[in-house]
Structure formats: C-alpha cells, structure tokens
Amino acid sequence: MSTQQDDHSLLVNEILESPEAFQVLAMLIKRPRALDELEETGLEPDLIAGLVGIMTDLDILGATRARKPRCAIRWKPFTRLFIDAAVGMDTEISIMVEAYEESEEGSFEDFASRASRRVARFERDLVRSTEFAALIKEYLNLLVGELLVDDPRMYDMTLLDAAVAFESLFAKVGAEAFKKSSKRSPELLALIRGWAHYASGVNLLGEVALAECLDAHGLVRR
To answer: Buried (b) or exposed (e) across 33-67, using 16+ Cβ within 10 A?
Structure first.
C-alpha cells in the first residue's frame, strides 16, 4: 500500500472514530450550515475547521454556492464511506465462504479473486441504490434528531458506531426477520435481506470460543 493510501486510511479512520467529527456531521444532516454555526456543538473553532477540512479532503463535505458559503454533506461519497464502515468482517467472510462453496476447484488465487469481486459487487450494489442512500439519511436524521436530541456529546457516539449498528442488527435478526417481497421497495428489501443473510451467516472465532466455554460450564441449553 502506498504512503498516499496509508494517509487516506488514517484520515478516514480519524473521521469514523472521532466523536467530535460525528457532532459536526450531526449538525449538517438536516441542512447545510455556515462554519460559525457549527460552533453550536461547543467545540473549539480550530478543531471544527480542522475536521471540516479533513472531511472536505475526503469529499464527504463540500461548500454550497450560496452568497455565504455553507458546509454541506455530499451524500454519494458519504454513503460510500458509511457502507465501507458498516460492512464488517463477518459479512465479508460469509460472502467469501459462499464463493468457495460454489466451486472448490481451482487455485487459491482464483478463489481469492472471485471472493474479492463478490464482496466488491455487494458493496457496489448498496452504494448505487438510491433507496439505500435515502435509508441511511433517514436513519441518521432520526438518530441525531430524536434519539440523541438531549446532547450527542453525552453518548460519545462516532460515525463508526452509527454504521456498525446496521451490521449488528442484521447479524442478530437474520434475513427471516424481513418480508419476502415488497411492492413499495423491492430493490431495498433485496439488498437488506442479502446483507442480513450474510451478516448472520458466520460465527467469528471469538464467538465460537465463547460458546464452547459457556457449554463447558453447563450454561447452554441443549
């Protein structure tokens, strides 16, 4: 990986894992705001300017063309960043297992290439869906507008927390928790069912180890 890619990854992680960055984004989800309006977060102006600068460099924020420029979320790049953060290792493993099971023949390189393409296609389909992008926006509006309305700072929430919640729920409930068909949102339903299927399909090694320990203590119902 090049130094430029390393630097980009560090900036992405800084925004994903920073409660302060999430506080800034929370102010921008409903509407664009001027830089001085973001001081309502209670953050220092220099910190706000730095975070806005990083998010602008990452293309998830941009300036409006109003007489007084305002910061605005660029929703397509933001959605791509959100999905990259939300799709976790267990979903990727599940997709890879499916790719392996379809054809156990061939070299490891063939399998790795096929699995990588399938993971990329899964994420690409999510990014391309306008319905899924609208769902993310609706979810974040509800999260910051109602559930965190007391004060987002109390929860130390990050954008990564908000993204991982997707996978966490899907892993818990599985595809069977969702309808099998929808006249209103068939594409969105198919994407959600697929994600829930993959997210709930694999137990990570830590989960397997814990299950065996609990079973050894006689705590697991048979």
So the answer is: beeeebeebebeeeebeebbebbeebebbbeeeee
And the tokens for 155? 């929860």
Q: What is the pLDDT of residue 144?
A: 86
Specify burial of residue 31 (Cβ count, 10 A radius: 0-12, 13-18, 19+): exposed
Average pLDDT of span 154-168: 88
Closest by CA position to 199, among listed 166, 177, 159: 166
Place of tokens 């997210």: 199
| Residue pair 33/27 in contact by the 8 Å Cβ criterion | yes
In whole angstroms, what is the distance from residue 80 CA to residue 154 CA? 27
List pLDDT tens digits, range 69-97: 899 999 999 999 999 999 988 888 888 88
